[in-house]
Amino acid sequence: MQGSLSSLEVVILAAGQGRRMASARPKVLHTLAGQPLLAHVLKAAQNLKPRAIHVVYGHGGDAVRAAFPQAPVNWVLQATQRGTGDAVSCALAQLGAEARVLVLLGDVPLITQATLEGLCARSASGLALLTFHAPGPNQYGRIVRNSQGLVERIVEWRDASPAERALTEVNSGILAASAENLRRWLPRLTSANAQGELYLTDIVALARADKVAVEAIQPTTLYEVQGVNSRSDLAGLERAFQYESAQALMAAGVQLMDPSRVDVRGTLTAGRDVLIDVDCVFEGDVTLGDGVTVGPHCFVRNSCLGEGAQIESHSVIDGAHIGSRAHVGPFARLRPGTRLDQETRVGNFVEVKASSVGAHSKVNHLSYIGDATIGEHVNVGAGVITCNYDGARKHRTIIGDKAFIGSDSQLVAPVEIGQGATIGAGSTVTKDAPAGELTLSRTAQKTVSGWRRPEK
Ligand code: UD1
Ligand code: CA
Q1: With CB atoms 3.0 to 4.6 Å apart as the test, which of 37, 149, 386, 416 could cross-link to 397 if both were Cys?
Q2: How remote is the CA of residue 105 from the centroid of ligand 1, in Å?
Q3: How far is residue 268's CA from residue 9's CA, in Å, rounded to a whole number?
Q4: Within a domain: residue 234?
Q5: Are 295 and 279 in contact (CB under 8 A)?
Q6: Where does 111-238 show beta strands of DSSP type E?
Q7: What's 61's domain CATH number?
Q8: Which sequence positions are flagged as catalytic?
Q9: Are 182 and 312 members of one domain?
Q10: Would you say residue 114 lies in a domain?
Q11: Last residue of a domain, one of 205, 225, 245
Q12: Cβ neighbour number for residue 451 with a 10 Å cutoff
């Protein structure tokens, strides 16, 4: 088996338009768990460490290639989509003479490494198919077996008789064979069928005619072999994927208040005793330290949350680094480049961007903090705004340790507030404020005695 795998080459069919998606986008670029379908298939292929991966592309070809600029694959153009058999034929010339070939479909995204290894191992004797049992209505190709139970041929749903359509063993589309056999069979395909296409599935009957053994194995789980032909299929597979990912998180010690109401679109790494409330979405690379709690309805992308950090409901956290025991939200928005040190507090309706907030500092209510460096033990009052943009460039605001910024102040950058400085509420600060002093910019308050409000 070692020998056969060292000659493994994978061919991924990804040239189809995906008409049933009713979309301008090529089907393999539709996303599942935040990644294009083709990315999932490529990952499965790469896990097998094949000698080469050939991707047959065509419809929307430039967009498909552009979406994978770094992928170590050999792109094979199928200019006209004449069917899955024609698609594999396009790659034939590129395959090594003695290659063992695994064919994957770009629209069957969740296939696992273990199943594919099993399939490749069984292909040594001839042709190995991955089939599954799908009771109920569906349009997969039907596996026709003879009276001894041996696979005879595959009949496509559109070509199948009512009796054939009643068969419940169906074709996943994934198969493995030698390049040598494919070179013998593919030129013999014809398009005499309901779709006028060259069906890869017809090689099964050709193998039988050549007395080549046809083996069929089944995957352990159904979602591995489910194809995406419609948006409904895609939504169904997304749920299957998210269900699996939620089970894995719980097995690793994460408490999910409702495993059907958390979506992970990337990699979520969590420590012990993490609690995630309902309707949270995690995107990209997210790390949650031990004891982190994430309240309901939060969105977290490419962020790292330190041990014991608490995120309250409806917070949006993107590209942020949050220190241990920090407290964020509800309704906070942390944008890329935010760094909150330990035990900081960022409260409701506060937006922070490209700024650092030192340990024990608080920005609790209704603020915008952009391009700022805030020291430790600073108190930023309600409604404080850093005016970081002059219409052309961004400028920084620096606030020293233990400073106190009175509510409703505007800090017009570039500006620096010294250590321990106090800014009086309602100030517009345009010049540096010295350390330890009270600075304020307010017109003096006056009272007009005896003034009367007009009456109707
Ligand atoms: C195919 C199988 C069917 C199987 C099903 C499993 C054939 C003839 N039928 O049907 O037996 O049950 O998959 O999901 O193989 N493609 C190309 N070039 C083409 C045509 C298709 O690259 O000319 C690619 C598509 O992009 C897609 C894959 O091949 O990724 C399958 O094509 P699709 O048209 O979706 O085939 P199905 O009708 O689903
Ligand atoms: Ca399909």
Answers
A1: 386
A2: 7
A3: 31
A4: no
A5: no
A6: 126-133, 142-145, 151-155, 169-178, 213-217
A7: 3.90.550.10
A8: 365
A9: no
A10: yes
A11: 225
A12: 6
- Give nearest CA residue, ligand 1 atom 12: 140
The Å distance, Cα 201 to ligand 1 centre, comes to 9
Residue 257 domain-assigned (yes or no): yes
29 alpha carbon – ligand 2 mean position (Å): 14
pLDDT in tens, the chain (456 residues): 444 478 999 999 999 888 999 999 999 999 999 999 999 999 999 999 999 999 999 988 889 999 999 999 999 999 999 999 999 999 999 999 999 999 999 999 999 999 999 999 999 889 999 999 998 889 999 999 999 999 999 999 999 999 999 999 999 999 999 999 999 999 999 999 999 999 999 999 999 999 999 999 999 999 999 999 999 999 999 999 999 999 999 999 999 999 999 999 999 999 999 999 999 999 999 999 999 999 999 999 999 999 999 999 999 999 999 999 999 999 999 999 999 999 999 999 999 999 999 999 999 999 999 999 999 999 999 999 999 999 999 999 999 999 999 999 999 999 999 999 999 999 999 999 999 999 999 999 999 999 999 999
- Cα distances (angstroms) measured from residue 337 to each of 280, 282, 353, 356: 21, 18, 6, 8
Which single residue is written with the structure tokens 């064919």? Answer: 103
Are residue 218 and residue 287 in the same domain, yes or no? no
Same domain? For 171 and 259 the reply is: no
Give nearest CA residue, ligand 1 atom 25. Answer: 16
**Domain interval for residue 350:** 253-439
Closest CA to 423 of 386, 394, 389, 371: 386
Residue 293 shares a structural domain with residue 196? no
Whether 231 is covered by a domain: the verdict is no
Q: Residue 320's domain is classified under what CATH number?
A: 2.160.10.10
User: In whole angstroms, how far apart are CA 318 and each of 283, 299, 302, 365?
Assistant: 9, 8, 6, 19
Nearest CA to ligand 1 atom 26: 16
